[in-house]
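Hello, quick one for you while I still have it in my head. Could you read through the record and tell me how the tokens relate to the sequence? No rush at all, and the record is pasted right below.
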Amino acid sequence: MKNKKQDRKYIRISSVLPVQIIITDKNKNVVWKTTFQGFTRDINEAGVCLEITNFDDSLITKINSGDYLFSLSIDLPNNEKLIQVFADPRWIKSIGDDTFKRYAIGVLFTDITEHDVHLIIKYAYRMHRKPKQILALMIFFILIGAASFFDDLKMRYNNIELTREVEMIRKEKEQLDADIIAIEKRKKNVEENLAKAHAEIAHLEKTLNKQSSVVIEENLARIKVLKNNSLEMESNLKALLDKENILTKRKETLSKSIVEATNKKFQVAYNWLKKNQEIKTGLVHSYKGDEELENIAFTYDQSLALMNFVSHRDFENAKKLLDFYVYKARKKEGGYLNAYHVHAGSVMEWTAHVGPNVWFGMGILKYIEATGEREYLKYAHMIASFILKLQSEDGGVKGGPNDSWYSTEHNIDCVAFFRMMYLVSNNRKYDIASEDILAWIKNTVYLPKENRFMRGKNDRIIATDTVSFGIPAIGPKTFYDLNIDPEKLIEYMEKNTKVKARFTNNKNEVFEVTGFDYTKPGNIGRLGVVSSEWTGQMVTTYQSMAEYFKTRNKEKSKYYNNMAKFYLEQLGKMIIFIGDDSNVAGLPYASSPDINTGHGWATPKAPFAISVAGTAYTLLAYTRENPFILNQSKDEFYS
């Protein structure tokens, strides 16, 4: 029988932990420039099974030769320092498909310290005890929650009734739309026949004195019939107009009812955003309902949540989230990392991309403007310094410290962020940076003949967010000054990425939803899918155009406002309640699960997972909050 000390070697931690991987030779000299990222599938004091997505075939062959070691950096939750250890790869197995290649690699530690062994064993036992602790907490919360059971039951009933009410109203409105269209067709037919009758009467009356008495009599009889028919048609036309009037007024009433009901749903969605925030870290779960993504807090999503907290004057929750990044979040070369563990705050993705950092910087500036707490400004400066290091001589900003690619969307974000930084700090270098990036966008990624932007430098793929971010961030006025027509940018996306898709919610109710895809779906060989987040972005785009035309062209302003309202109503169809829980309501990331977005990632696999990105951006659109500008610059931005 093994003793207890021997047994513990075989305790495995099955939870996912992020790992940085550097390839070295047997003498521990680095032989591969790229630093890879992987996740643990199992780990104990002897070794670990890694899951990695970005190895190429040539590297796999070299690793199989047995001449290489892995230098691993493992982040255990709540551990201040990384575990640094060399490991010997023993086996490699492909676990992906043709679209997303993934490998499982088993490695044995070669030089792990006693201290690190102790940390792993301690964490392993904590994970083994966790189910019992969770059970105890569940019992505790059940007892605490019993007092509010009946109130919650009432809220659940109200939410179910609200959903039913919206659907009944929507069905009646759809029937009214069909009736009005039918009336329009009948009206057109009657008007055409009436016009023909009047024309024939005029012609007959004009030629009466030139005809014989017999023909005159026949024509007079014909005129009498035509006039009687005309009176009947005019009566029918009036009846159709009256009926159309009644139906139109009813439709307007129903439209208001849908708006009011959708408003209630959006309020519940904001309540979910608040309840989805972890007390310990202040981070918000990026996804609820998808096991693979359950514990991840993406920095971009946290930025959207922060902006929503600020726009709702919910400064306590905003500060909790901010303080995690200020005092606890690990950084890479001065930039925040793409993702953290929502409970422990440990790193879940070791990459520090420009986009998420820019968004968090804008969130900080929104908070400062709303509260006046300028002590957070130095962290916005920190993010700005991180980005400026990545700016090339031609003005463009690379994707990150270890990246060679340039994203149009990232650079659009940077234009807005540096404008905001200049406004808050009055430091001229930020204004210069913004202008240089704007020039890069026009000269490098704008395609004037197609009236669109490329996805990035030398990357002609269509990306909706180049417009859905571009117009609210850069502004219609600036685009016109650059001889770039924002209306044509919108028309291009409406033609290429606007789609209709079937959305089935968790009640098995089916809706046809009109919205925007991530790209042109036909180009990647699939049917269209509606992105809740990117459709929300387009709502903000239409709102920006409406603001710009408010004093220039009232008809255009009205048109763009109506477009914004239409797509908000479409997004209202995608708000779902999980079960009957009144506290869990929001929007999924897209109308279909596990779909290739065309940009290197897929939508969540779980069909009814609620997404912070989809919910939070829709809420920003609903509150008419442009995330790219400060309120103090709004008049100038649209002037």
